[in-house]
Amino acid sequence: MPKRKHASENKRAIEEEEELEEFDIGDQGSPSSSDDDAFPSEEEHEDEESSEDDEDGEAFDSIDVDFLCVDPEEDDFHGLKTLLTNYLDGRQFSSSELVEAITANPASSVIKCGEDDDAIGVASVLQLSQHNNAEFLAEIKDFVKQHCPKGMEIAEKLNAAFASPSTALLISERLLNCPPQLAPPLMESLIQEADDMAKENGSKINQYVFITRAYADSTSTAAAPITAGEGSSKSKKNKKSKKEKNSAVSDLIFATPEGEFLANKASIAFSFAVPNRAVGKDDLLPHRVVAVVPAKEFSGALKEMRAVVGG
């Protein structure tokens, strides 16, 4: 059934510009949470003369923007393909096949702004068991395994997650100037649709593999890989592992709210830096975070997310 969800935000352009000023403009496609580089937000002024007089950039008008979450359509193909261009760090992969899978998938949403038909975000849950023979899935698995810490139990758990018929791939990519308040209702609706989809297929989703983006200061502890979920038969060690993971995650600046809150609930998580891609004046280092999140942890993550960002 088609969905049409609204999220009206009253935003100040200067606030977004200050947030995104740290990042440079990328050369590939539309900047998004799948890009390492962000773009400055557009400034709209009702009084052109007053904006010229405001040399310090302190006075900006507020604008109302209406965001819609709708079912993907065939006309969204090129927009979605652009959003997913850097999903695997710019590595060429079967992105067209992935877009087709997302478009045909009932548990998918496309974010659009007002009356503009261009997709500015996409979220989808793909059951791995439904795409075993897909090239895009094989390429995503290869990308994740290539960056997984070697010689650790986490690698075995990651392989087990990929092999499980109850595992799904969670995709969430959008332009960086989308308001964070979109995240809680978007994720809540998406997970409900995923559960309904699994029931119709006679299956169940117990965990999600999630690839998300974050940034770290070059001097922070997060500049090194973070790992969690190495496992232990002793609960004391398990608690220590979770504490270390949460500490490392807290040092990262996530591109989306769901990235942060879901990573904090992950049973398996690791990060790695994107080489030679320092961003902006503060030399922020782009990172990728791969997390396996138990389905039972989503409600808690969404509750915490909503308490922080609203929505």
Summarize the topology.
Blueprint: E1 4-12, H1 13-20, H2 48-53, E2 62-70, H3 77-83, H4 95-104, E3 108-113, E4 119-127, H5 135-147, H6 153-163, E5 167-174, H7 183-200, E6 207-217, E7 227-228, H8 235-250, E8 253-254, H9 257-263, E9 268-273, E10 284-294, H10 298-309
Parallel strand pairs: 5-6
Antiparallel strand pairs: 1-2, 2-3, 3-4, 4-5, 6-8, 6-10, 7-9, 9-10
Helix pairs in contact: 7-10, 9-10
Content of β-strand: 15-25%
Q: Whole-number average pLDDT?
A: 78
Q: Radius of gyration over alpha carbons?
A: 20 Å
What is the share of helical residues? 25-40%
Low-confidence stretches: 6-31, 38-54, 231-237
Structure keywords:
ten-stranded mixed beta sheet, single chain, 311 residues, 35% helix, alpha+beta
Task: Write up this protein.
- With 311 residues, the chain is of the alpha+beta class.
- Strands 1, 2, 3, 4, 5, 6, 7, 8, 9 and 10 form a ten-stranded mixed beta sheet that branches.
- A hairpin with a 5-residue loop joins strand 3 and strand 4.
- Helix 7 packs antiparallel against helix 10.
- The longest helix is centred in the middle third of the chain and has 18 residues.
- 38% of the residues are buried.
Give a summary of the structure in a few sentences.
The chain is α+β, with helices and mostly antiparallel strands and 311 residues long. Helix content is 35%, strand content 23%. It starts with a strand and ends with a helix.
